[in-house]
């Protein structure tokens, strides 16, 4: 719409108006529609802060996990159990994003490690800026591993880098073999895919070969772990893997991978 | 995806750019949206109408260019557009590619203003 006279000329870059009844006061005029090249990613701001976070944590030798899944796949349970297994060997801190309640934060606090909660309200994902602010409330000098539990959502968190070292996507056997196919963006961006609630596999007739094949074909870059956070099945393997990465971080010099 | 909040951020950038050029009206916004970005173009269009109401972009046209997914096969040293929306198999060697060269874009490319 033309700002001078309210016309709807959308096609020409220079147009001529002649007065009519409604715009009688305006003289015939031309005014150029100019083009502005913007070429800007809408996520550029978040990407920049995520990159700063990456340095901020690397400088402090902190290894960072971003854990994502649908609501109820078992993020809080798995992380609680992971912390219980690792806390004597690495110093852990947690940031948990939750829409409204602090239930998850309380469950995670039961492990004895420091937990900061971000109440996101209507926001469906965590952003890099929120992580930076929350991290300042943690005793970072005494943390080797920072676990971020993202908001339960498999769409939006895929687009928001937090500056993590490892992105972990969780899927439970109760969600069905073809679930990953509905969220390609998230699964393709994950470093590790964890299939949780393996204790229920038989009960829900989980088709393990199909599920693993779907997962591998969709996310060939991802390492796959099968666990039950409840019974402990597969937990040792997963925790060993995590510990190994944490330790390599501790010896790592500051390097920028972008 | 949260298309409304993405559109708000887009409009914020657009308005700042327009004012920086001493212009007062936005007639057209061009965006590039990747096939793998998670953004639903229809939802973005809907959000555009809502978000621009009462702003200098009210009544403007939103033009969305879809950016196809392009993968790279390191085995064949070539780029390809996967036939399947989810499984990125190289058409030459059949290897699964996880090097995604484009398809995640959510960009404001240009504006037409006066
Ligand atoms: N049977 C079984 N239940 C689990 C397992 N892991 C989590 N759950 C249950 O799944 C529900 C959701 O778990 P929660 O950790 O809150 O999921 P989140 O929303 O992803 O954080 C809870 O009732 C957990 O007790 C598991 O390995 N096996
Ligand atoms: Mg939780
Ligand atoms: Zn969102
Ligand atoms: Zn190939």
Characterize the structure shown:
The complex is a heterodimer of chains A (258) and B (114). Helix content of chain A is 31%, strand content 21%. By secondary structure, chain A is an alpha/beta fold. Chain A has one domain: Rossmann fold. A seven-stranded parallel beta sheet of chain A has the order 6-5-7-4-8-9-10, with helices on both faces. Chain A has a two-stranded antiparallel sheet with strand order 1-2. Chain A is globular. The model of chain A is unreliable at 17-25 (pLDDT under 50). Chain B has a domain at 2-68 and 102-113: hypothetical protein PF0899 fold (2-Layer Sandwich). Chain B is built from two helices and six strands, in the order H-E-H-E-E-E-E-E. Chain B has helices spanning 3-20, 41-52, and strands spanning 26-34, 61-67, 70-73, 78-80, 99-102, 106-113. In chain B, the strands form two sheets. Chain B has a three-stranded mixed beta sheet with strand order 2-1-6, with helices on one face. In chain B, helix 1 crosses helix 2. The chains are: A alpha/beta (258), B alpha+beta (114). Chains A and B meet through strand 3, helix 6 and helix 7 of A and helix 1 and strand 6 of B. Strand 3 of chain A pairs antiparallel with strand 6 (106-113) of chain B, so a sheet runs across the interface. Magnesium ion binds at residues 75-76, 104, 149 of chain A.
